[in-house]
Amino acid sequence: MLHSDDNLYTHAGSNVARLTIAQALAGANSTVVFATGSIVGNALAPHRALATLPISIFVVGMAACSLPAGVVAQRFGRRAAFLLGTGCGMLVGLLAALAIVLGSFALFCTAMFFGGAYAAVVLSFRFSAADCVPPERRARALSFVMAGGVFAGVLGPQLVNFTMNLWTPHTFAATFLAQGAVAMLAALVLSGVRIPGHARAPAPAPASATAGAPLKTHAAGGRPMRVIVRQPLFVTAVFCAAVSYLLMNFLMTAAPLAMRMSGLSQTSSNLGVQWHVIAMYAPGFFTGRIIARVGAQRVVMTGLTLIGLAAAVGLTGVDVAHFWVTLVLLGLGWNFGFVGASALVLECHRPEEKARVQSVNDFIVFGTIACGSFLSGSLLNAYGWSTVLWVSFIPLALVACVLGYAAATRRGEMAA
């Protein structure tokens, strides 16, 4: 039986509010990992070159679990995927704390994999918010949920500041236990989410696609993925999202350790991460409106420009101010680049295809990030912070070429 639009979006306000709160709580997972992962790794790793490996494993977990999370969401509903993800969030807190107490680098890396699984599910909140509202409000709902990360930007670093020395001599062990407790709270919030359209209502489809055939449900039907991923818009969206997230992760992985190597304090590093995460998510309160006004592609280009500016500022010095300004610009650039690219993905699929397409998008993006994360630590230890910054201009140049080609293709199509 078809649902009317009124019934379909009955819980829109409650769902978006819960997803925003959960984003705020669950975002502390990634913040804690980025603030402490390379430092704990440096203390536990058998070799300094492996210091950033835990964060790289975290990203691998994001990539490896994106597709399974999409399968769970499509078969059992988004809420089931949410609760499975928060279960991983609680597990990472317990395993990471135990790894620090035992001094086990392997166990800490295992914990980071589960942390990545949790983060992969958390990033699907943005698409879930878009499912909760009418089409004309999707970009705004998506960016608003991302804005919930502003609180995560405060919560995560403060968890580190207030708990890192509570369990002496096991620095950061109590921090991860606190992070696990926050994941439990996020699970309680998510248990009340009611996402519309899961395998209950027939998916609306163009008349040309359904003539003479029965309507297909959200859980079945849709075009083959090989057709979807060949769309020029999808390729552009994925490439821009991948570069935005790759560079954010590439620089963020190295920054806390680079600050310590430059003689700066842990508190300065924590505050830098805090302002970085706030800058990542604060624009979410208005990014959706900007996208609606000027278009997603212009927003993406602005974001990539800000990331390039962040790297340029970082090259001018290694004082606290240089790191902080770099991290703030990096966060702003990530928001515009990643949220804009996510909005483009919404234009690439039909309703019955959304779970598959969104999970494939995230799988490609996070798989790319994992490569950059592995490279970041090696470059930092071998050649220093400035080399990490210089290398970041390479993917920026590549994405500029992709955007230029896409714009030229559009102009050619319009002329024809």
Q: How many structural domains in the coordinates?
A: 1
Mean pLDDT: 81
Uncertain runs with pLDDT below 50, 5 residues or more?
1-8, 198-219
Give me the CATH fold name: Growth Hormone, Chain: A
The H-level CATH homologous superfamily, spelled out, is: MFS general substrate transporter like domains
Number of helices in the DSSP assignment = 19
Helix content: over 70%
Shape: globular
Query: What would you call the structural class?
Result: mainly alpha
Give the end-to-end Cα distance, rounded to a whole number of Å.
43 Å
How many distinct beta strands? 0
Core attributes:
416 residues; mainly alpha; Growth Hormone, Chain: A; disordered N terminus; transmembrane transporter activity
Overview of the structural elements:
The N terminus is likely disordered. The protein has a single domain, classed as Growth Hormone, Chain: A, CATH 1.20.1250.20. Helix 12 packs antiparallel against helix 13, helix 12 packs antiparallel against helix 19 and helix 14 crosses helix 16. The longest helix is centred in the N-terminal third of the chain and has 33 residues. It contains 19 helices and no strands. The protein is mainly α and 416 residues long.
